[in-house]
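Sharing a chain and its predicted structure for anyone who wants a worked example. Both blocks are below, sequence first, tokens second.
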Amino acid sequence: MAPDVRKVSTLAGDFVFCRMNLIQVLLYIGIFVFAVTGALKARTHQMDIFGAAVIAFATAYGGGTIRDLLIGAHPVNWVNDYIALALVIGAVIIVSFFKTNQIRFRKTIFFTDAIGLGMFTAAGIERSSSFGLNEGYAVLMGVITATFGGLLADILCGEKPDLLKRGELYATACAMGGVSYIFMKRGGVEYNLGLFICVCLVVFIRIFSKTRRWRLPGI
């Protein structure tokens, strides 16, 4: 007996819908986390709330905007997305009420940035793949998504970007997690599990390499 085409189509549609929802969740979490990172960074430079909003916006949206322009996604991911905008504004407001010393600020920035790197790497790879990019370039777009927002924010704050600091496993952590995710997809690892492992791997490499002072060789 032939399968019901409508049922098969519905099941396939439900799978794609759930898959896209998961990516959207990762993007929203990443936007909020990176917005917190940007707002905290603005506080270390004693900016007002407007300046904090600008830095938070740049940190949260910079990488994704560059990615979407490169892959030809129009409009870019944040246009007309009020939820994403509310997350950035909410992050700035929350940080404005959060009081602590400079050392804790820098530690908090580091950990929130590491989490954001993992979230945006996985989401960037999947979004790029949905636009037909091959695996290698999808990983590259995942790295750009995760790192270029921080790069832009550091430039606006007059700091040397983490992306360019000697020996830092920053973009390298994203690339390692992204490549591992591609191999997991090829190996048939369950989709949600693969995304979760990718995020955790990027966060782990970033934090562990920093605490153990692992560095890339100089040139």
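Comments welcome. Residues 5-19 have pLDDT under 50 and may be disordered.
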